[in-house]
Amino acid sequence: MSIDFRLTDEQRLVQETVRDFAEREINPYIREWDEKGEVHREIFAKMAELGLLGAPIWERWGGSGMDYLSFAIICEELERADTAFRVVQSVHVGLNSLTLMQWGTEEQKQRWLVPQALGEKLATFGLTEPGVGTDAANLATTARRDGESYVLNGAKTWISLADIADHFLVFATVDRSKRHKGVTAFVLERGIPGLTTGTLHGKLGIRAGNTGLINLDGVRVPVENRIGDEGEGFLIAMSAIDQGRFTVAAGAVGLAQACLDASLRYAHERHTFGEEIGRHQLVKQMIANMAKGTEIGRLLVWRAGWLKNQGVRNTRETSLAKWHATDHSVQAALDAIQIHGANGYSNEFPVERYLRNSKAAVIYEGTSQLHTLIQADYALGYREDRPLRCEPLPAQGWERGVAGPAGA
Ligand SMILES: Cc1cc2nc3c(=O)[nH]c(=O)nc-3n(C[C@H](O)[C@H](O)[C@H](O)COP(=O)(O)OP(=O)(O)OC[C@H]3O[C@@H](n4cnc5c(N)ncnc54)[C@H](O)[C@@H]3O)c2cc1C
Fold first, then answer.
1. What is the 303 CA–ligand 1 centroid distance (Å)?
2. CATH 1.20.140.10 placement within the chain
3. Active-site residue flag, 295
4. What's the 137 CA to ligand 1 centre distance in angstroms?
5. 322 vs 391, higher pLDDT
6. Among 18-32, 62-76, 210-224, 393-407, which is the least confidently predicted range?
7. Which atom of ligand 1 is nearest to the CA of 128?
8. Which three-class secondary structure state does DSSP give residue 1?
9. Residue 147 neighbours by CB distance under 10 Å
């Protein structure tokens, strides 16, 4: 199959539309929102009007039916403005809606996926707990079967959108001693007795976005709210994270691009020793590294997206894209501050926000340490993706699930 690095007319239109949206709706206000820690949900509604809250979801379930490259472009352009708005793509679309499209029954899709794709309901993803992050097979939240219901008890923390979401895809264990084989997935709706949420304050970055906690105190849900089979939740969570990581990687490319854009502007404007600082070799080195890492990140993201469009399992490639792009975006933000000198240390310029925001992405959706281990294990042959099933193509090549590649 030939490879073509040119964007299609449709992908270019997506890029122009989202870039224009970000320039009008986010950039003029983001400094103040970030400073005050304000979450502007009306921007999500405007994103929904553009079809962004269901971008890669098939049209038959209320989505826009876009391919994964378009999805990456949306994430890149949103995070170029601010991380908080890319997070909505990652959590609402990537981790939640794409997972429902792949693993939900038709009834579950009609009930939860359709309103999410239309942007009528906001959705999130609750895996992390106060005592469990990277070691996600060790969940302490329990789901006890009781007749035709489950009763859930536990707490989730560091959950993006927790305090404003309507739908929650949460993971609990039916038997902790079984580790990943006990993990089971459920959709919960706001308003169900026993479910409460809160907001975490004092975050380093993503201050224009909500991050919070979910408490589950004897939440009783019917079996119909279970996604997949009992004990299948870990597989579901990992397939969701393949999608989430893709959006995080694409967003990190946007953040690095924003660092480069700001640095280029400043390098031309600022003069020392009688010339633009861009003329100094050591400044050029930082600019060159920023450009190199950003382009590599974009290519890795596009390759992962291309694989997703084919319905091919892409866990290794997505992890590599996420690891590189997020690590690079932190370095790009550090260098962008350096190029700005003292001005970079103030929120008069956006680069200090870029640094604070960039740091989250080397923690969530697999820390950089986890991706280092994953990549080493693939290289050493300790880890291998299951052979692909070709007929019908499941989204991204996971073994079970009913959806095909997005855009089909
Ligand atoms: C802003 C933000 C938003 C988030 N949103 C969500 C969300 O929407 N939903 C959700 O479920 N979670 C979310 N998270 C949580 C995130 O996924 C976890 O923080 C992440 O998985 C890491 O878990 P942890 O913080 O418990 O760190 P830990 O797992 O406790 O790790 C601590 C440190 O030890 C290292 N480490 C752990 N195990 C190993 C190992 N085997 N080898 C080497 N090093 C290791 C880690 O790399 C890290 O440096 C969010 C986090 C942040 C910061």
1. 26
2. 238-397
3. no
4. 13
5. 322
6. 393-407
7. 11
8. coil
9. 7
pLDDT digit string, tens, across residues 178-208? 999 999 999 999 999 999 999 999 999 999 9
Question: How many Å apart are CA 85 and CA 22, to the nearest integer?
Answer: 9
Q: Quick check: 407 pLDDT over 50?
A: no
Q: Which residue's entry shows tokens 């990943």?
A: 180
- Ligand 1, atom 53: nearest CA belongs to which residue? 360
The architecture CATH gives domain 238-397: Up-down Bundle (1.20)
Of 35, 49, 365, 391, which residue is the catalytic one? 365
Q: Using one digit for the tens of pLDDT, what is the confidence trace for 31-70?
A: 999 999 999 999 999 999 999 999 999 999 999 999 999 9
Q: Give start-end residues of each CATH 2.40.110.10 domain in the chain.
A: 124-233
**Pocket residues: Cβ below 6 A from ligand 1:** 91, 124-128, 133-134, 158-160, 206, 211, 360, 363-364, 367, 369-370, 373
What is the fold, at CATH topology level, of the domain defined by 124-233?
Butyryl-CoA Dehydrogenase, subunit A; domain 2 (2.40.110)
Distance CA 388, CA 179 (A): 26
Helix (H, G, I), strand (E, B) or coil at 11: helix
- pLDDT on residue 313: 87
Dihedral sign (CA 350, 351, 353, 357): positive
251-282 residue pLDDT tens: 999 999 999 999 999 999 999 999 999 999 99
CATH class name, domain 9-122: mainly alpha
